[in-house]
Amino acid sequence: MSTRWSAALHLVAATCAFSVVGLLVKLSAERFPATELVFLRGLFGVPVLLLLARARGVSLAGRRRRLLAGRALAGTVAMFLYFVSLAWLPVGEALLLNQSNPIFALPLAALLLRERIGWRHWALVLAALAGVVLIVRPQSASLNWPALVGLASALFTALAYVQVRELTHSESSLTIVFWFTAGSMLLGGLAMIPQFVVPRWDELPALLGIGAFALLGQLSLTWAYAHGEVGRLAALGSLGAVLGALWDLLVWGHAPDAWTALGGLVAIGACAGLQLIPGPRPLTPRAPTA
Q1: Are 7 and 233 in contact (CB under 8 A)?
Q2: What is the pLDDT of residue 101?
Q3: What is the pLDDT of residues 175-224, one digit of tens each?
Q4: H or E element that contains 235
Q5: Do residues 68 and 96 lie in contact, with contact meaning Cβ atoms separated by under 8 Å?
Q6: Which of 161, 105, 154, 103 is nearest to 129 (CA)?
Q7: Residue 25 — left, alpha, or beta (φ > 0 → left; ψ -120 to 50 → alpha)?
Q8: Considering the entire predicted model, what is its pTM?
Q9: Closest alpha carbon to 100 in 234, 199, 205, 190
């Protein structure tokens, strides 16, 4: 099998794994606070990543520790907000909003990485925003705050991705994933103390599944982006929202309304287009960071 097809299959596997995480978090959110779910996700991943690093002879100390810590913080906040949105929104809708992060990643890349953004990129950002507006539209006379929380998770996800892009110049992917996983475990653990819920035995499979599928998805995603074409792979990642909608239908019998479905299609198409058209160029050459 060619590397290109292998990378695509790894990305599909990651997307499926993350959709299962969304399903399990949704099922667990009635009893467990989002902070505890964030902690448990990291608790499973840290020992596995330590074993992987030891087997591969990779140092996890990192060179740019301030940036690694910033990526871990942004990723943890994004995960927390995403888990909160899952408690109130259908899985497909929460996944879709979280995956709309290219809307924010492009302006952040222009601001923080000094990348030149073309008019086609901006046109697609506006189209994606229009799709998101159809999803986050006010319900009755009040704001759809769970959807706004899901959209906020996309903002912090974009900030984390921009930092990852900078970190790849100097750090191994395993180091980046470890700092994020360990950081989320530490921050989630501290935040969950006032509201810790002791799991019952019958709840452990779902909680362990969150950690296992999240780690599987993260490792598969990392491998895919290390060996495949970023634009094509990111477009495949849009399948996550479709899988989430399928879980909603199979488990809860919920189907999105017409406006949400239309907004989702517009947002997915625009975000996929952002990844497939030629990428932005740096305004000025940057010195190597390794």
Answers
A1: yes
A2: 78
A3: 988 999 999 999 999 999 999 999 999 999 999 999 999 988 888 877 77
A4: helix 230-236
A5: no
A6: 103
A7: alpha
A8: 0.83
A9: 234
